[in-house]
Amino acid sequence: MGSERYARKWLTLAIVSLGIFISCMDGSLVNIAAPAIANSLRVPPQTVQWVVTAYLLCITATLLLFGRIGDLIGGRKVYTLGFIIFALGSGLCSTAHTIWTLALYRAFEALGASMLMSTGMGIVTASFPPQQRGQALGTTGIVVALGTLTGPVLGGFIIGNWPWPTIFYLNVFLGTAGFFLARRYLLVDTNLKHIWQEIKSRLTQSGENLAYQLDLPGFSLFATGIVTLLLSLGQAPTWGWANPWTISFGLTGLIFLGAFFRREKTLEMPLLDLGLFQNWTFTGGITTSIMAYMVSFSISFWIPFYLSQVLLLPPQRVGLVMSAIPLTMMITSPTAGWLSDRIGYRILTCLGLCISTLTLLTLSLQEQTVLPLTIALILGIFGIGMSMFNSPNNSSIMGAAPHNKLGIAGGIVATGRNLGMVLGVTLSSVVYTYFYQRYSLLHLNALPSTDYFMVTEMNRQIFAAAVKRVFQAAALISLGGAVISIIRARSVTRDSLIRDTN
Length: 502
Fold this sequence. Notes:
The protein is mostly helical. The protein is 85% helix and 0% strand. It has helices spanning 2-41, 45-73, 75-93, 99-127, 130-161, 166-185, 192-206, 210-214, 216-239, 244-266, 280-310, 315-322, 324-343, 346-364, 372-400, 406-442, 457-501. The longest helix has 45 residues, at 457-501.
């Protein structure tokens, strides 16, 4: 019996790791495929970003909701259903013939990914005793790195040999396999009728209605606010910053988000526990985490375009160069975590963001004749900086949360991470569009937009100049995060000295 329980918990970890692997690999696969998608569907990079943004935005908006549903009916049910929704969404993506249809299908695919992300860590935590949880969660960290590392290499190989929809066929296969494995070995009843009956039974027992238990009004306010605000920012370069639509969507987003935060302050069971943000260590950690992921994802989105359109590398070599970031992160993350346990997070988080800032500035100074190996080396050092920041920063955030709110804190960390990714892709596209249009006007011989995909020397120069501005903007954000980390470290140190003196 004991051996059966032992095998069961490690089998559970393997199935959760499969979901983590798929979701991490999918993001880097689509980033590598972005230039091919742009060329196939005849749209510029700033439009392709909506394929990435729609996916991340949907995850960001629904993570807290699916986490709450998992608490209501059981995380294993939500997790298992997440596999099949992810597979169905991927199948739809492979059939898309326009960029906006593809973005819509990616949003549906993201529902499945959100269900996997919001419940996976809870399943692992519940399956292992306290003395083995660190080992189990550490294993999932390695899986994250492997998924992120596999994506660029595998994506480059697939795009170099087959049409871009092929990457979604792979997701269909893996998602379907994950569903049947989870259904069989997590012992889950996936009958939707039975699940709905269980939800109604739980609500009857608690005496509360569905809207109250899940805080559906709060979810609606948050989702509407974040979507309209980012839509305003993302489309402003196309519509114009003074356009009534831009202003209307922007104001609507701010109003809805303001109403969401006011509502959460008054609830006994809020979707977002704002009380956690009264701790400066927690607030500063979440803020710098958002900024770090803004930087990381803006780079991971634009580097494939830079490599393919400026350095003219084939997809296979693009994937190899991009793998430098997850490779160095996979190697250095365990060391960073080990060091943070011994010397604290303060020095490591500050140093990590400073390294990232310097590598981004170095990247922006490279010429069109730069060797791919040089770019890979710079990206590898950038990955070291990110790994020095991420593990210690996450440890400081979770360490600042009360023990009875660790689950809520983990949900906030995941939401902040995805919000940073969305903001990174959206705002970097705004920077790129502004400078691309500006530099195009400065060159009378620049190609019109209809000839965008004709690779000429003039077009390469304009594109390279605009992308360098993206790298510089990312460096500025990274520097801001480093400054906040330094202030946070000094504040915590000062507070500790005051407590010790008293």
